Amino acid sequence: MNDVIQLKIEGMTCGSCVGRVEKQLKQVKGVESVNVNLAVETASIQGSAKLEALVSAVESAGYHVQTTNRIYSVSGMTCSSCAGRVENALLKLPQVLKAGVNLATEQVSISLIAELQESKVATTLDDAGYKLLSPNKPTDAKTSGNHHKTPFYHADWFDALAASVLSLPLALPMFGMLLGKEWMLPALWQWLLATPVQFYFGARFYRAAWGALKAGTGNMDLLVAIGTSSAYALSLYLWWAHSGHSGSPHLYFESSSVVLSLVLIGKYLEHKAKRRTTDALRALENLKPTTATVWRDDDWRQVTASTVQSGERVQIKPGERVAVDGEVLSGQSQLDEALISGESLPVSKKIGDAVTGGSINLDGVLEIKASSVGAESTLAKIITLVEEAQGAKAPVQALVDKVSAVFVPVVMVLALLTLVSWGMFNGNWQQAILNAVAVLVIACPCALGLATPAAIMAGTGTAARFGILIKDASALEQATAIDMVVFDKTGTLTEGKPSLSQTTALIGNEQELIQLAVSLQQHSEHPLALAIVNKAKDMSISALDVSDFHVMAGLGIKAKLDDATLFLGSSHMMKDLGLKLPNDAVQTKGASTSWLARQKGDKTELLGLFCFTDKLKTNALSAVKQLKQQGIKVAMLTGDSQASADDVAQQLQLDQYQAQVMPADKSTFIKQAQQQGLQVAMVGDGINDAPALAQADLGIAMATGTEVAVSAAAITLMRGEPNLVASALLISKLTYRKIKQNLFWAFIFNSVGIPLAAFGFLSPIIAGAAMACSSLFVISNALLLQRWKAKE
């Protein structure tokens, strides 16, 4: 009997919603029956349909399947074959929608459609030959309070060191032969040294190999276990066969022991190197304050930071980390936000300013009102974004997964062919075994599995240090193909803090004009509105009460005052009202303009003009130059006046620009550019930029803007500096280049190494050293990304 799958569905509001969802689900192949319950917002599906198809059907009906994400640490994974097996095992669970393994961090992230007990995950992994360590992130041994209590023989380095010490006397005779010396130990001593290396320090390979065999697959451990065991068994046979004869036989205990020692050394160094790829994430984790000073029960109390509630008053003393996101209620100080935003200089904070949890208070005492706490804080969101990016797979990884799935069986067949070929055609079965062992040992797929995640982790971690958050690995690939970057103007290329530079009253006087304008704009948060409000405050002008306030998207606003309707907006709005605009009214070069009109009965008249100027950001010009140096065209879209757009475009030497663009027209412009064959990146910070960010091949949002824009973008810039756009594209390109380099070298190691071993040109020891070096090479190559620095 088929299992019943339950989906938690968001967005259903009525019976018609239920009918639409049921209709879509019934069309999925393998569905036998569907029951949608509106009260509990669930759909129960019986049949053999695939989970992905069911989720896709719900989404095609216009609804969303609720999922939860979990990250688990898994021990026992050694290569890309292991990663594939862990993913496949978890995907067989009915609650699991997606599963992705990051071999570099030895973690698996799963997306669930229903609750799943941790014990079930542990059992599933155990059946596949692996062990569940813990949910979320593993404890860092270096920061653990119990680290000093760990016995030395349990330390990461002990197995590699001890195996190497025991193997050294076995390897020295090889160097003696080069000097014409006979340093070979008696067979008994060779056996005594090799046996603990093989079965005690090499036990991990046997355990993992047995787990793979039980699961009906192969992995790197199986190759090492079979290869070294073959060399060890051949030595035992030759020792036994030579018993009763004079002299010492030539044994191969050194091959098995030295290969195991080299693999253990490689694994230890690989582990050390992999830890460096997560340095940025650990640095962010360490920013989380553990305690906070909160005003409770009429006194300042020291509490756990995670218990702080939104709205509470928090005190930050000099030298302390800001416990939560909030707004300054009293005090003035300088904050170091370097590890959060990438800003190297301290930022001044005063009453009314927003502060970010995790930043360091350098001098004064601050009292803040907590706003975002826990998972909603800026730091928590940054950590989540970096974790998701580092755990994501690049599209090219799909090829690696396919190769890994058949890699070990193919290598086993090649090793068997090598053994049979050398034994039958050459008659030297000893050499045949050694060549087959070399094939098994050099063909470790570790480098293949580490190539992509190591580069992604190093690249996204380095980008995060400079305030560039890359949400997913596909953004890295997309960034390599960008031909055009389209900027929004206000708040992106300009400071977004326009000032009122010209007020021209066509009817009445300036004071009356400003009073009418501030009456319309008194509750607006638009930058132009704030400029009018500030001007009215400076002139001590109070606002009048208006009614029927209405925003006309992309045009302006209107409201009723007494028996008249007031309109404040763009030239387009005025022309729609049938008004003729004076050509000589605008006297400020490059200004954004807003016109004020009044409609009373059948009469519509133009009352006056407001001109606003907004300064370019200091690094806007260098941002455009850096992009052009990368061979990328730069365009600008703005809803401001043509004169304002002309002025900015001339200063920045833009390739293309359009003024007086409606919000919907921004995505149309991008679509037209895409139809011309261009790959387009959109940079914005406002709600009206969200459709364009979603339409673009790559969306880049300023975190200083709205939440909607940030959520629609694949890359988020923690500082509102346009030159970070060029840096984001560059680090993305460099990271993707490292992925391709790593994959190339990983394939080359195996493509060249396996034939050389099969034809007898590599001894098992050389093969073992080459295998260990291949993993270290791809990680070291990825770590070069940590030397990258963003241009100012």
Number of helices: 26
Global shape:
elongated
Name of the level-1 CATH class of the domain at 463-494 and 617-735: Alpha Beta
User: How many strands in all?
Assistant: 30
Which regions contain 5 or more consecutive residues with pLDDT less than 50? 136-148
CATH fold name of the domain at 463-494 and 617-735, please?
Answer: Rossmann fold
Identify the quaternary structure here: single chain
Largest beta sheet: what is the strand line-up? 18-30-29-28-19-26-27
Amount of helix: 40-55%
CATH superfamily of the domain at 463-494 and 617-735: HAD superfamily/HAD-like
Let me know the average pLDDT: 80
Q: Classify the secondary structure makeup into a structural class.
A: alpha+beta
Attribute tags:
Alpha-Beta Plaits; 30 strands; elongated; 792 residues
Describe this structure in words.
- By secondary structure, the chain is of the alpha+beta class.
- Among the domains are: 4-65, Alpha-Beta Plaits (2-Layer Sandwich); 69-135, Alpha-Beta Plaits (2-Layer Sandwich), CATH 3.30.70.100; 290-381, Calcium-transporting ATPase, cytoplasmic transduction domain A; 463-494 and 617-735, Rossmann fold (3-Layer(aba) Sandwich); 499-613, Calcium-transporting ATPase, cytoplasmic domain N, CATH 3.40.1110.10.
- The chain has 26 helices and 30 strands.
- The strands form six sheets. Strands 18-30-29-28-19-26-27 form a seven-stranded mixed sheet, with helices on both faces.
- A hairpin with a 2-residue loop joins β9 (291-296) and β10.
- The longest helix is centred in the C-terminal third of the chain and has 36 residues, at 723-758.
- The chain starts with a strand and ends in a 9-residue tail after the last helix.
- Mean pLDDT is 80; it is low at 136-148.
